[in-house]
Amino acid sequence: MFLKGKKDTNEKLYHRRNEKPEESNFNVKKAIGCLFFIFIIIIINMIILLVYKIQ
């Protein structure tokens, strides 16, 4: 019974260790994607403003 409990906790730790890097990596990708999206919007706004000023 004690060994079974130990095995379960080890499995949980193993799963947690396996899941975390992917999760953090996904969060980083999400953050980069959002920043990139905002950056593109700012560039488009700058171009529109420049075109508007030229006209």
Keywords, please?
55 residues; mainly alpha; 96% helix; 1 helix
Word description of this protein:
The protein has 55 residues and is mainly α. Helix content is 96%, strand content 0%. The model has no long low-confidence stretch (mean pLDDT 76).
Topology:
Layout: H1 2-54
- Report the biggest beta sheet as strand number plus sense, adding barrel if it closes: none
Shape, per Cα inertia axes: rod-shaped
Query: Helix share of residues?
Result: over 70%
Q: Approximately how much beta-strand content do the residues carry? A: under 5%
Concise overview:
It contains 1 helix and no strands. By secondary structure, it is an all-alpha fold.
